[in-house]
């Protein structure tokens, strides 16, 4: 029979994992915002800015939903999924850098590494 201490340890671990899952979700939202921010900062006409600022986030959302979300309709091997996520988040950090926000790009990349790394380590395998 489990002791109270063992159950509380499982509960705390579950809460910590839930916290990192929240950070993972917020990093996904932040990546979408970063793409939109870059699009609206692009040095071009107003129409191009609007097309990039709205269009690129929509494309990323569709790609994420189809291929990278936990309930994706198309399944890939884990290594390919990780590679695609690295590209999505890496390009989001690069978009922030290109939009003139290098510190924010660095902080975003660091938060993504920590949150996704901890999620991976705490996930039930």
Description:
With 125 residues, the chain is mostly helical. It has 4 helices and no strands. Helix 1 runs antiparallel to helix 2, helix 1 packs across helix 3 and helix 1 packs antiparallel against helix 4. The longest helix has 38 residues.
Q: Outline of this structure?
A:
The chain is built from 4 helices and no strands. It has helices at 4-41, 46-68, 78-98, 102-122.
Q: What's the topology here?
A:
Blueprint: H1 4-41, H2 46-68, H3 78-98, H4 102-122
Helix pairs in contact: 1-2, 1-3, 1-4, 3-4
Q: What is the general shape?
A: globular
Give the terminus-to-terminus CA distance.
24 Å
Q: Helix/strand/pairing class, anyone?
A: mainly alpha
Report the average pLDDT across residues: 89
Please report which band the strand proportion falls in: under 5%, 5-15%, 15-25%, 25-35%, 35-45% or over 45%: under 5%
How many beta-strand segments?
A: 0
Spatial extent as radius of gyration:
18 Å
Which assembly state applies to the chains in this document?
single chain
Number of helices: 4
Portion of residues in helices?
A: over 70%
Uncertain runs are: none
Order of helices and strands: HHHH
* Biggest sheet statistics: none
Question: Which terms would index this structure?
Answer:
4 helices, 0% strand, 125 residues, mainly alpha
């Amino acid at each position: 029979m489990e002791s109270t201490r063992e159950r509380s340890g499982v509960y705390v671990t579950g809460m910590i994992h839930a916290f990192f899952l929240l950070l993972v979700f917020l990093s996904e939202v932040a990546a979408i915002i970063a793409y939109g921010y870059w699009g609206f900062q692009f040095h071009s006409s107003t129409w191009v800015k609007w097309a990039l600022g709205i269009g690129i986030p929509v494309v990323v959302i569709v790609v994420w939903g189809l291929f990278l979300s936990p309930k994706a309709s198309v399944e890939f091997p884990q290594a390919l999924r990780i590679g695609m996520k690295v590209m999505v988040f890496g390009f989001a950090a690069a978009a922030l850098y290109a939009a003139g926000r290098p510190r924010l790009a660095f902080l975003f990349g660091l938060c993504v590494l920590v949150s996704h790394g901890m999620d991976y380590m705490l996930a039930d395998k």
